[in-house]
Amino acid sequence: MSLTDRFNPAAQRMESSLVRELLHYAQQPDMLSLAGGLPDERHMPAFPEVSQVADSRQYGPSEGEGPLRAQIVELLAQRGLKISQPQVLITNGSQQGLDIVSRLLLDAQSVILTEEPTYLAAIQVFKLQGAQIVSVASDEQGMSIEALRAAIDTHQPKAVYLIPNFQNPAGHCYSRERREAIAQLLDEKNQLLIEDDPYRDLCYDPVDLTPITSLIQQAPWVYMGSFSKVLWPGLRTGYLASCEELRPYLVKIKQATDLHTNRLGQAMISQFLASGALPAHLQTLREVYREKRDIMAQALETHLGDLLQITVPKGGMFFWVQLPEGLSSRQVMEAALQRKLLVLPGTPFFAQPSEWDDRCLRLSFARVDRQDLQRAIQLLNQVIRSLLA
Ligand SMILES: Cc1ncc(COP(=O)(O)O)c(C=O)c1O
């Protein structure tokens, strides 16, 4: 028996994440990267002094630290989601929330519905459980109601996974009507919603941000949030809230997975929230990122407006652009690398082959400074025009 024959079938089929592989190019000093989903460290607050935060040396509870869980109850109430503290589970980033939920729900016989395209590391997690991912058509308002109804009836999925706010990668933000219609449909079908909401605070234009979860009357739900995009991703601290019925099962999986999330990271975040500095910090982030978004929008329009289909995202970190017919996103990535520019091809965001899977690029404006944003789009322009010549 070879070594890999010992692996479970889903692990045998596992592919590595293109983004994480590309990250090593991003670390080269002269490389300009629009590829990662990394926030700008120039706008990360300093850590609180260790001596100021709660003593974190001992093992802690699997559910997470009490003070932080109470603060999350408050944050979610401000978003219109009324829950009690036992419903909150602190996770090692919202990525672990995805993993825990997947372990609870999915196996090789399961179907999960997602937007098309969707977050590439969610695809990885769902596939690791062996589940079949069925993509449901989405437009700029969110997932199509007719397509969702048909997919639920056809596939009897275990869950529907949605990123309603400033979606990664497509950048769309669901309209209020679409949120309500989805909640209603999920209630009617008693279908489980996994709502993933890490980008909501990076909002640059007026939009509705009501969690779909808060509109659900009786269907089961999981809602996930993260401090990665607005504070310190290195602390790997996120959270998951769930309907009461799911809670004990999710906690058991957390226990089995890693006992509990790092206590020092939780204490740091709790201390920052308690200081009252979050609202002003978010305001600064919105101003900084809005300016960068506008610079990228302007540069794309000026240099590539005649060739690319460009939609300006109302929040988040990404432009999702459609390439001209005949160009492949992988080809563009390779040609851009020659010019020391890193862009992310759209392919890993598609769970199934589609006419668009190699026709889009995800361009992140969050971590690049103003001059470099201009330079990056000029380089992209040269790359695309030379490939078309
Ligand atoms: C949609 C989405 N969900 C979850 C995550 C994971 O975030 P975290 O750092 O909290 O694990 C990301 C990170 O890019 C994301 O884009």
Could you characterize the architecture of this molecule?
- With 389 residues, the chain is of the alpha/beta class.
- The chain folds into two domains: 4-44 and 279-388, Aspartate Aminotransferase, domain 1, CATH 3.90.1150.10; 50-274, Type I PLP-dependent aspartate aminotransferase-like (Major domain) (Aspartate Aminotransferase, domain 2, 3-Layer(aba) Sandwich), CATH 3.40.640.10.
- The protein contains twelve helices and 14 strands.
- It has helices spanning 9-12, 18-26, 66-78, 93-105, 120-128, 145-155, 176-189, 247-258, 263-274, 278-304, 329-338, 370-388; strands spanning 32-33, 88-91, 111-115, 132-136, 138-139, 142-143, 159-162, 193-196, 221-226, 238-242, 318-322, 341-342, 344-345, 360-364.
- The strands form four sheets. It has a seven-stranded mixed sheet, with helices on both faces. A three-stranded antiparallel sheet has the order 11-14-13.
- α10 (278-304) runs parallel beside α12.
- The chain is globular, with a radius of gyration of 21 Å.
- The model has no long low-confidence stretch (mean pLDDT 95).
- The site of pyridoxal-5'-phosphate (PLP) has 13 residues, from α4.
Q: What percent of residues are in strands?
A: 5-15%
**CATH class category of the largest domain:** Alpha Beta
Order of helices and strands: HHEHEHEHEEEHEHEEEHHHEHEEEH
Main β-sheet: number of strands, strand sense, barrel status?
7 strands, mixed
In short:
This protein is of the alpha/beta class. 39% of the residues lie in helices and 14% in strands.
